[in-house]
């Protein structure tokens, strides 16, 4: 089950009506930090910390053993010091609450870098709370859902960026790896306590390929083994690609009961059964293959009232449905996937790895990287060198550019709300900048992966030890031998079937998605042109009508932008 909780300041925690509703929801007091009382069901692990703190969720040491927090922190330290010690010595899925360093009764909150445990908070009147799910606060009458249209305006231009601000008015989300201090009626600005930049460049780099591969193998194996041991039974969502296959190979070493499922479509291009079956065979289990029907990929579908922002679109909803059915059939307690593997394993599609090699590795390393880049992309060495030079001398653009397609020209584009990881060191390499932007994008994966049945959704490749181990490997080493994700392949060369290990491509759902678009054009037209975004003056009606009236063109993926807008429109409709 997910780790549910809500923290309330004294005046709200003592209200009889609130207490009655919390009891009805199966919650009880589990401890107090400052003036905040923490409520959680018995199934949610809550541990005490020295100095009056509480940890919601699970913490593990560097060997994957559950942390003994009492002996780990023998004496009380300042909250910033304790937060740093937690991040340096442990990992897991947790939210930690510590009393503020003064006597105000305020509480300081840290969310683990993986963001596996939710942490939304309302920092101002009429009630200050923090919770794993706003549905809990709404269920006890402490929050009423109201759309923040300023956020929605930002979202239509930057639909794949997770920020502290949410789509619900007055509600914020503590970003992974960040900390915030809350009082009864206000809050201090949040602070990034963990960022990817701590592990990139300079002395952090592991230049020896064998050492790098060993550290990644150790980290992934430890995380998968720890999480699988806790869950006991799980469904592995197999895509047929390298990342989920690596998770599967690690699961073969555990005692967990594993089931496997892969999604296929009625069209060519996404049938990965041949490759998924190899991992199922490795695990000695049957592979369940489920077909995505076109009718499943609806653009108008219910989303949880507790969702904080638009993140679920038609394809993720339909995949979620069949995975839920497979998990229910297998009677498992968790779902595992290789989500985030492309980003964590530095699957960069530009010339930036070679540019990084010249800047940080020198001439010989740079020339070798250019040759690897040529092999990776099947182009001439001259073209690879030219692309590398362009990367070397172009000014990097860290923040993502806004997507203004189909947006009204009369609407003023909002300025980009900064993410704490945008602040790159001046010496940052261009490939490392691209890697960090990719990691920012993975923070939405939990929101975008709808799964039901109260099961935990595990993405082991986004766990803190794995991310840190991979960040320490220079970007150019990931294209060694003209292979993408080369160090990950080396790390698991003895555990994976050669067919998967040597594979360079993977099936795509693009044909299926394009077919859904062709079948749904009229529905999409009415959904957007008669919807809330249009009523707010955000959309360019004429541009939408022109595009939707044209037959789809081969290799034109502009329709994916329409799915983004439908995702936002659908979220708004179900939160009005």
UniProtKB/TrEMBL annotation:
Q: What would you give as a GO molecular function for this chain, any one?
A: asparagine synthase (glutamine-hydrolyzing) activity
InterPro entries per the record?
Answer: Asn_synthase (IPR001962), ASN_synthetase/amidase (IPR051786), Rossmann-like_a/b/a_fold (IPR014729)
Q: Which GO terms describe its biological process?
A: asparagine biosynthetic process
In which pathway does this enzyme or protein participate? Answer: Amino-acid biosynthesis; L-asparagine biosynthesis; L-asparagine from L-aspartate (L-Gln route): step 1/1
User: From which residue to which does the signal peptide run?
Assistant: none
| EC identifiers of the protein | 6.3.5.4
One Pfam annotation reads Asn_synthase
Q: From the Swiss-Prot or TrEMBL record, give the protein name.
A: asparagine synthase (glutamine-hydrolyzing)
Please give the organism: Pseudoxanthomonas winnipegensis
- Which top EC class is given? ligase
Which reaction(s) are listed as its catalytic activity? L-aspartate + L-glutamine + ATP + H2O = L-asparagine + L-glutamate + AMP + diphosphate + H(+)
Q: Where is the Asparagine synthetase domain?
A: 216-573
């Amino acid at each position: 089950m997910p780790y549910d909780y809500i923290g309330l300041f004294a005046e709200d925690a003592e209200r009889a009506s609130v207490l009655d509703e919390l009891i009805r929801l199966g919650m009880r007091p589990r401890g107090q930090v400052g003036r905040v009382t923490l409520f959680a069901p018995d199934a949610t692990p809550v541990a005490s910390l020295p100095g009056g703190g509480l940890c919601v969720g699970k913490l593990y040491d560097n060997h994957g053993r559950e942390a003994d927090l009492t002996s780990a922190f023998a004496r009380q330290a300042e909250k910033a010091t304790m937060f740093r010690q937690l991040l340096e010595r442990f990992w897991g899925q947790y939210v930690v609450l510590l009393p503020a360093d003064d006597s105000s009764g305020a509480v300081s909150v840290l969310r683990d870098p993986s963001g596996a445990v939710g942490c939304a908070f309302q920092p101002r009147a009429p009630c200050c709370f923090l919770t794993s799910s706003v549905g809990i606060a709404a269920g006890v009458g402490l929050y009423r859902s109201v759309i923040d249209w300023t956020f929605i305006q930002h979202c239509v231009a930057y639909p794949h960026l997770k920020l502290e601000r949410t789509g619900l008015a007055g509600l914020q989300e503590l970003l992974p790896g960040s900390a915030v201090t809350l009082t009864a009626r206000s809050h201090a600005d949040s602070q990034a306590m963990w960022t990817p930049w701590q592990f990139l460049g300079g002395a952090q780099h592991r230049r020896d390929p064998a050492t790098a591969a060993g550290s990644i193998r150790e980290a992934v194996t430890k995380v998968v083994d720890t999480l699988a041991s806790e869950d006991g039974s799980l469904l592995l969502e197999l895509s047929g690609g390298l990342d989920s296959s690596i998770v599967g190979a690690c699961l073969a070493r555990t005692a967990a009961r594993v089931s496997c499922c892969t999604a296929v479509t009625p069209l060519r291009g996404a049938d990965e059964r041949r490759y998924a079956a190899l991992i199922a065979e490795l695990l000695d289990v049957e592979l369940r293959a489920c077909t995505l029907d076109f009718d499943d990929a609806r653009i108008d579908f219910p989303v949880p009232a507790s969702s904080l922002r638009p993140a679920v679109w038609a394809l993720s909803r339909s995949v979620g449905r069949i995975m839920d059915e497979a998990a229910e059939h297998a009677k498992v307690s968790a779902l595992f996937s290789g989500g985030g593997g492309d980003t964590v394993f530095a699957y960069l599609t530009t010339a930036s790895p070679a540019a990084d090699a010249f800047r940080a590795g020198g001439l010989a390393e740079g020339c070798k990287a250019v040759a690897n880049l040529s092999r990776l992309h099947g182009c001439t060495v001259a073209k690879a060198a030219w692309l590398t030079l362009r990367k070397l001398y172009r000014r990097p653009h860290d923040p993502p550019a806004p997507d203004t397609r189909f947006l009204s020209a009369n609407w003023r584009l909002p300025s980009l709300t900064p993410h704490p990881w945008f602040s790159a060191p001046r010496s940052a390499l261009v490939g490392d900048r691209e890697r960090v932007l990719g990691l920012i994008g993975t923070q939405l994966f939990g929101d975008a992966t709808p799964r039901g049945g109260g099961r935990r959704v595990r993405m082991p490749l986004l766990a803190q030890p794995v991310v840190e181990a991979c960040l320490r490997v220079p970007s150019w080493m990931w294209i060694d031998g003209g292979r993408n994700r080369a160090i990950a392949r080396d790390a698991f060369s003895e555990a994976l079937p050669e067919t998967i290990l040597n594979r360079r491509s993977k099936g795509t759902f693009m044909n299926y998605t394009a077919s859904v678009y062709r079948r749904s054009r009229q529905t999409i037209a009415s959904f957007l042109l008669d919807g809330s975004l249009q009523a707010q003056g955000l959309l360019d009606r004429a541009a939408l009508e022109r595009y939707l009236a044209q037959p789809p063109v081969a290799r034109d993926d502009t329709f994916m932008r329409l799915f983004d807008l439908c995702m936002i429109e659908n979220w708004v409709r179900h939160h009005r």
